Amino acid sequence: MAARKLTARFEVYARTRRQPAFPIRIEVLLDFLCQYVNDNGGSAKSVNKVAYAIKKHCEIHRLGWLDTADNALLERSVKHLMFVDEIPSEQKQPLGYSLLVEVTKNLNSYSRRDIRLKAMFWVSYEGALRSDELLGGRCLQDINWSEDYTKFTLSLKRTKTHRKGPPLQISYTDNAIIGGPSAVKFLREYFDAYALWTQPKQSLLFPSPHITANPKSMSTAWFRLQVKRSVSDIGLDPSQYSSHSFRAGLATDMFRSDVPLQTVQWAGRWRSICALLYYRDNVDRQLKVQAAITHVRQAHTTPGIHSDLHL
Q: What is the pTM of this model?
């Protein structure tokens, strides 16, 4: 849908220039990308996605695309637009364990709606789930409970980064040792409140709250709104949080606890060190850097021997 809208926007722009949109002409495309950046207040964060969407449209519909030289010019121009972009990325704040506990306390334990939200919030956090991984057609059959109901696995057939091969299995365990909140606890309560234990396995795990003849999975927009309302209720700025805050929250909590990067990558299914982008506690990062520098200084200081570094 987004790709079609971008292509339609390009076609409208070409008409205003009294130029045909297709086959693609490099001058028209570059002017459109510059106009797109201007319309976004100078932000070029998604300009490469715009160019890619138009290219894919041309490939799918067998429309003329750029030759090798013009395509190289396009790539250089896109990189330049992104390089000179001085507008910082708007990363959402992490919704980690401590804040999630406060959010949970503020929800009504006797409200079926709030019971559902608690399950969704904690399953998202402990699984470092993207919205589509939580909501994208998830069915009851995707949840596999242990015999004593102290564990479950969430099966993900396809995700943003997992397109083929066997389904991913995300494991969840109860907080039995120290007690307290956990995804297992709240998902059990959700199954009880909505009598899901006896429902057909093909039933949606989190259906839309709007009753229809053909139930659909809950929308990411509705879920995002619930996240913003919930953090607002405990005094936080809702504009700084979204459904992606759970994913950043688990990564940040793990980094704070000095969990190895490799383990964080496994937890969030990151294939590269881009997991570091989800470490969103600048104060903690700086403290760790200073502590590391202090450790290096101590390791290179021998009692009784003065260093020449100050000379």
A: 0.74
